[in-house]
Amino acid sequence: MMWLAITGFGMVCTLGHDVVTACAALRCGMTRPEPLDFEVPFDEGIGNVRLTGHPLRGIAEGFRGLGLYLRLSTHALTDLLWYSGLREVEQGFWRHTALYMGLSPTRDESIDFYDDILEEQLAEEAARHVGITIPEKGRATFFQGHASVLVALHHAALAIQQGHLERAIICGVDSLVGPEELQVLYDEERLKTPARPRGLMAGEASAAFLVEPLSLALRRQAPVQCLVGGIEVGQESKPRSEGGLPMGLELSKVIDRSLRSASRVGTLYGDLNGEDSRSSEWGGARVRLQGRHDLSGAVEIWPAASLGDTGAASGALSVVAGARSLFRGHVTSGDVLVWSSADTGEVASALLRRHEPSRMSSSLPDLQRESDR
To answer: Is residue 224 part of a domain?
Structure first.
């Protein structure tokens, strides 16, 4: 599969309402946990206490369902348009552009009709709110949870390679801090509480990025942030949502395929969120990769440590943070590996690589050969 250029991105999260601020705060390890409007038993069952999480104050309060996801995603998309200089571009620019939304399936089965509403309306309404005209055939929604953004990126890369698209915006958005979501997670014993120290902290965020062929980006003199390639997807046979305990077999396979395109990995972003099951999955994958790929020197970054578990937004956050670090020179050497694992068993990985214009003419054939392996 071909390598693509990332030419823009946007973000809104608890650490910043734009990508520059948010990535700077992530890089220095900031975190802003706050009490949520959800009570859990205190240690040893003595009274209740408000659960701690990562709510996005000032933007998301009072919104639920489509309104919440629309508000989060349009903030990220507006930031992307500003960052990439596309606010005043002619509408014809978007004629061959896709908008792919990455979401989690509705966690509360009693309101699972939300998925149909989101699939039918979110991408269309988000595009309309930010003033871009995306054709209906170019709008799609992916419900693979944590892996949805990388799965969407995989589809976008295939469509671009086959000539069906010129470019694609991938946007991940999710919120785990609503009362319905928290109740489901609490009932499943997945939350970190005073009585249960190992578990996830709920968060909410949205992030988006724009991908296109490098040749097209250079032709329109777009600011190339980095290159993305080695995009691989897979499916665990016994996912967490069905009571399974993935041991990293399928995750190690997709990462192994991605790393065939890598020279050396200097940094990796992944989905660890405080849950034992994810730690076991990553540990199993590392053991299986040992001997084939040396990741011992890679800096490991877990966005959930600063933002809480952001669900389907996590993959986009990792891609954007990794790309921004490459562009700003905070990654000293090597490629950036991003991996995601969904509760429903989907796993995916991709590589980010620094764009070096001085070596562009000689590196393009090499990148193409690597993508054909």
So the answer is: no
